[in-house]
Automatic annotation (TrEMBL):
This is TIP41-like protein. Transmembrane segments: none annotated. It holds the Pfam family TIP41. The gene is TIPRL. GO terms for cellular component: cytosol. GO terms for biological process: TOR signaling. Belongs to the TIP41 family.
């Protein structure tokens, strides 16, 4: 028996569908290990050929530490027959987290600190965005032509009952902020006879301080030569939400209706 056959294989989940000249696929796997292959307090050399996955992430992102759970192999990919490629990648989502290389003012950080006067607070305030906030909007290749748009998402069309040909929900990363909230980035896709819809969401809840949501929605209708993209940023402090039922704070789809829009942009992504 080969030596590597003795190592239990971690589950990997994948599925593909060919739809209207698009090849759509996802890969779902385990979380990134939290210890270097060389041991608890060791690191691989940056450019060595067999640098482990954890150290590869550390060197690429230069963050003081990574989220609790990084699903480093999770990926959603949509490739058109003419070459346009749209992907959703954990590494790219974390590249947009402030890493302390530039000055950073995290909203409400001082207020949060004062609301948690325990002896371990100082070590949690590192010179980087400890909330792992990202406004990642997907990864496009050069085959796409992007134009600003004044259109709005066709919610009426999306609410129509249709057969679901393909559906999946992938987490890219998640962190519980030292049990003081949650920061998560996920992407969902559903394919219907009329087209496909994707929701990429970063949801942040810092308990007793603020909630923030970055949503990027993609809607492709089969009669079009573009994908419509809408980016929305919502944010509110706990004091601004004092009349909202507390159970809603942990359910993004519920609290979304109470968070005011701070920024909204729309685009057409032409793929041919």
């Amino acid at each position: 028996m080969m030596e590597d056959e003795l190592v239990p294989r971690l589950p990997v989940d994948s599925e593909t569908i060919d739809f209207q000249n698009w090849h759509i696929s996802y890969l779902k796997s385990h979380i990134l290990k939290s210890i270097c292959k060389k041991g608890q307090d060791n690191n691989c050399t940056q450019h060595e050929d067999d640098c482990c996955e954890l150290c590869t992430y550390r060197y690429a992102l230069e963050l003081p530490h990574l989220p609790d759970m990084v699903f480093h192999k999770n990926k959603l990919s949509l490739k058109h027959k003419d070459g346009a490629l749209l992907e959703f990648l954990p590494m790219d989502s974390l590249r947009l987290v402030e890493n302390g290389k530039q000055p950073l003012q995290v909203a409400c950080a001082q207020e949060w600190k004062e609301s948690r006067p325990d002896c371990h607070m100082e070590e949690k305030f590192k010179p980087f965005d400890w909330t792992f906030t990202t406004d990642y909007q997907g990864t496009l290749n050069e085959k796409f032509r992007v134009e600003n748009s004044d259109m709005s998402l066709n919610k009426f069309k999306l609410m129509q009952r249709e057969k679901i040909l393909f559906y999946h929900d992938l987490t890219l990363f998640e962190d519980e902020l030292h049990d003081n909230g949650i920061s998560s980035c996920s992407v969902k896709i559903r394919v219907m006879p009329s087209g496909f819809f994707i929701l990429l969401r970063h949801f942040l809840r810092v308990d007793n301080v603020l909630l923030k949501m970055h949503d990027t929605r993609f809607h492709y209708e089969i009669e079009n030569n573009y994908i419509f993209k809408e980016y929305t940023k919502r944010e509110a402090t706990y004091s601004e939400l004092k009349n909202v039922p507390p159970p809603f704070f942990t359910v993004p789809n519920e609290i979304e209706n109470y968070l005011p829009i701070k920024e909204k942009k729309a685009y057409k992504l032409y793929f041919k």
